[in-house]
Amino acid sequence: MTKSYLKLAAAVAVAGASPAFANAAAPAAAPKPAAANQGVTRAAVIQGRDAAFKKIDSNNDGNITAAELAAADAAVTRARMQAEFNKLDTNHDGQLSSAEFLSASPAPSALTGNMSKTIAAFDKNKDGKLTADEFRAPQLAVFDKLDSNHDGTVSAAERQAAQAQRKQ
Ligand SMILES: [Ca+2]
Ligand SMILES: [Ca+2]
Ligand SMILES: [Ca+2]
To answer: Model's pTM, two decimal places?
Structure first.
């Protein structure tokens, strides 16, 4: 029992290199089923990124540091693990407490080194921090690639075309 919990914990921890960063979500690249038939506008992508940016930029100075990203990541990972634990702990036998399970999730300080790498990948001016622009850039690059007729909206058809291409 204990073993499988820990295995799961490790898997959850390792799965996303940076859940907070990825979670900020490319609506164009990973559409929610409900929006599957609607187009996604460039403005919506920017709006989504900016909202995510604000959440991660905990001191509101307009820059995301590795420490801020690590803290956001740890929070996302903990929330995910809590959800997994709640799902699994159906018999409430107290074999492994929620606290013990969660303690397997990485502490922000342990993540900061990795986050520096994540940030470096998008840090255009190499100051070790991400501005809202730098944070948006990777998602917008995906968006612009998908928006093949450049009308500022990734339509369902454009998305399907991209998916079909990926399968080939
Ligand atoms: Ca900040
Ligand atoms: Ca920067
Ligand atoms: Ca388009």
So the answer is: 0.66
